[in-house]
């Protein structure tokens, strides 16, 4: 059994798509399919159910996923040990990234990391619609080494969470709104207002929902959209209000940010599995990031 066959199988199992998995491991789809079939022949069991339009794991495939991860992690640790003796870190860093990460200088971190460790292949993976919830799940299952995330209601068990930086969320509204001239707004005054917001898995959305619930207030979210620019534009057009930070609002014009009392907070953390040793590549990025952002 070859490690590359396990890697290819695991990519298909995690992506549930031969097309996406082929792009992830940088081979053509026909070669990926052949690799998985070779593994199936070696194990004497069908791992992938190809009888439907969707990729599904068989019972044997589900059983192999955990062991495949353990085997690949052990092989990575062995490579790290050898690389350390010859003066270099190699391997792959699988890094989860939130959509709303302007508060962290990610470009600066990745540039410095690559300069110091050119032998490491960096695989940034952006969150989809489920935001930080999706990233935390991917780290917990071993699909990602590390991730930037924001989950104010708490992270799943089994993760180590290092808070990096925090920003207060303020009320974003257009100049013509009745609240636009206020210097400060009480949270209770926003009951009954119409809001534009991100999907429930996003950290900013969870912060706001948690604060309103804690104060017994209802909030109407008229539109949910996983696009920061569109949210800002809908606010500017007068469709609804939103909770944003200066880093999220960016250079959007004709939108005011007004402090709210009490205010929801946006806390960005770096997360990893607590019960699994980090690879040398992941540990180096963890140490670089936590040295740049020593915490809050």
Folded structure, characterized:
The structure is a single chain. By secondary structure, the chain is an alpha/beta fold. The chain is 41% helix and 22% strand. Helix 1 packs across helix 2, helix 1 packs across helix 3 and helix 1 packs across helix 4. The longest helix is centred in the first third of the chain and has 27 residues. The mean pLDDT is 88.
Tally of separate domains? 3
C-alpha termini separation? 47 Å
Oligomer: single chain
According to CATH, what is the class of the largest domain? Answer: Alpha Beta
Secondary structure class reads: alpha/beta
What is the CATH T-level topology of the largest domain? D-Maltodextrin-Binding Protein, domain 2
Share of residues in strands? 15-25%
Q: If helices are DSSP runs of H or I spanning 4 or more residues, what is the number of helices?
A: 10
Shape: elongated
Rounded radius of gyration (Å): 22 Å
> Can you name the CATH architecture of the largest domain?
3-Layer(aba) Sandwich
Number of strands: 14
What is the N-to-C succession of helices and strands?
HHHEEHEHEHEEEEEHEHEHEEEH
Query: CATH superfamily membership of the largest domain, which one?
Result: Periplasmic binding protein-like II
Helix content: 40-55%
Strand order of the largest sheet: 4-3-5-14-6
């Amino acid at each position: 059994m070859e490690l590359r066959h396990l890697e290819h199988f695991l990519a298909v199992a995690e992506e549930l798509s031969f097309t996406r998995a082929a792009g992830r491991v940088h081979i053509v789809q026909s070669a990926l399919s052949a690799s998985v079939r070779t593994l199936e022949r070696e194990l004497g069991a069908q791992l992938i159910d190809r009888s439907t339009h969707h990729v599904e794991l068989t019972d044997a495939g589900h059983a192999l996923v955990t062991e495949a991860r353990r085997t690949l992690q052990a092989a990575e640790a062995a490579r790290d040990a050898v690389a350390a003796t010859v003066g270099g870190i190699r391997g792959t860093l699988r890094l989860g990234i939130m959509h709303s990460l302007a508060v962290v200088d990610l470009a600066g971190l990745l540039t410095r990391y690559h300069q110091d460790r050119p032998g490491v292949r960096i695989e940034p993976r952006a969150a989809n619609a489920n935001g930080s919830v999706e990233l935390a799940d991917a780290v917990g299952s071993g699909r990602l080494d590390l991730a930037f995330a924001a989950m104010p209601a708490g992270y799943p068990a089994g993760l180590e969470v290092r808070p990096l930086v925090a920003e207060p969320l303020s009320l974003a509204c257009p100049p013509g709104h009745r609240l636009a001239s206020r210097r400060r707004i009480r949270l209770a005054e926003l009951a009954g207002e119409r809001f534009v917001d991100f999907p429930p898995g996003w950290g900013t959305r969870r912060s706001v929902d948690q604060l309103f619930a804690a104060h017994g207030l209802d909030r109407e979210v008229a539109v949910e959209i996983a696009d920061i620019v569109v949210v800002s534009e809908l606010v500017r057009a007068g469709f609804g209000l939103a909770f944003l930070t200066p880093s999220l609002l960016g250079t959007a014009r004709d939108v005011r940010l007004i402090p709210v009392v009490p205010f929801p907070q946006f806390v960005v953390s770096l997360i990893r599995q607590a019960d699994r040793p980090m690879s040398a590549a992941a540990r180096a990025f963890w140490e670089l990031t936590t040295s740049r952002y020593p915490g809050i």
